[in-house]
Structures are given as structure tokens and as C-alpha cells.
Q: What sequence folds into this?
């Protein structure tokens, strides 16, 4: 297992559109293991393959405090959404930034598991937010892009300054 490097916003590679996984195999399972380890080490509650510069439709989520409820979604598709919620979000690719985003309150997702078998999951609340946030990464979208242009410009300046100070 290995801790993978997480791309940092505004890295252009975060805007790459992920391709479907054609075949779930040992390489997929190894990647998922490393993604989970990277997410837990960060620590975070979700990670998309896009964030580790692998442009395949794979996300991992674990919102449990004990880090023992790993959920893996390969080629996830949203079948149904309903309701609305405003929640504060953060992202391992945008460390230290938390902003409110409006999302669906309920989502029904269909995906493949680590054996390549399809499953359907209905999620609500925070789990639903996490799934939508991670799925956005697969289409090249980072949560801060829901903010106004002005806020995004300020945010990029802030991150730039912070990175300079960290050198
Ligand atoms: Ni994120």
C-alpha cells in the first residue's frame, strides 16, 4: 500500500474528465486500497481518483469516525435525486477552505463494487453530499467552482499567498 500524492487546486489536472473503468481487476483493487489509505491518512471522508491524478471513474467514501465503513463506487451514476440541503464542504485538494454548497438531499447511485458487480445505494444527508462532491471530481469539477467568480478569485489569491509562505 502507499500514500498517493493529492493534486492541489488550482492544478489543471483536477479538471480532467475521468473515463469509465472498462474492467475491474487487481490493478483497480490496488488503486482503491491506496486511495483509501491516502484518504484515511489525510484525514478525509472522501477521495476521487482524479485527485490522485488517475482519470478513471472511481471514488472512495468513509464518513464513519472509526474509519471502518469504506464505500467504493466504480463508474458511479446518479439515478435519482431529490430535496435540497446547504452544507459546509471541504476538500483534500483545497486544504483549509470550507464553503457552503447547495446539493441534493437524497441521491440514488448505481455503481460497480470491487468485484465488478453492480449495486444501488440510496444515500441522504452528509453521505449524499460526499458522494455528489466526489462524483463532481470525476467530471473535473472542484466544489469551490460553485462559488461566485469574485469569491473564486479571492480564494486563488489566498491559496497562492499561503503556498508562497509555506516555501
Ligand atoms: Ni474534494
A:
Amino acid at each position: 500500500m502507499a500514500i498517493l500524492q493529492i493534486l492541489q487546486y488550482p492544478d489543471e489536472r483536477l479538471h480532467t474528465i475521468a473515463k469509465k473503468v472498462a474492467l475491474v481487476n487487481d490493478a483497480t483493487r490496488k488503486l482503491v486500497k491506496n486511495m483509501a489509505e491516502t484518504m484515511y491518512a489525510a484525514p478525509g471522508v472522501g477521495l476521487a481518483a482524479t485527485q490522485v491524478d488517475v482519470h478513471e471513474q472511481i471514488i472512495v467514501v468513509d464518513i464513519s469516525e472509526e474509519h471502518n465503513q469504506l464505500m467504493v463506487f466504480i463508474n458511479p451514476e446518479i439515478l435519482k435525486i431529490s430535496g435540497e440541503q446547504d452544507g459546509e464542504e471541504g476538500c483534500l485538494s483545497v486544504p483549509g477552505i470550507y464553503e457552503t454548497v447547495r446539493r441534493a438531499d437524497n441521491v440514488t447511485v448505481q455503481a460497480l463494487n470491487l468485484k465488478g458487480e453492480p449495486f444501488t445505494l440510496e444515500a441522504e444527508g452528509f453521505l449524499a453530499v460526499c458522494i455528489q462532491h466526489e462524483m463532481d471530481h470525476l467530471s473535473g469539477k472542484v466544489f469551490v467552482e460553485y462559488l461566485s467568480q469574485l469569491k473564486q478569485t479571492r480564494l486563488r489569491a489566498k491559496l497562492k499567498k499561503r503556498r508562497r509562505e509555506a516555501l
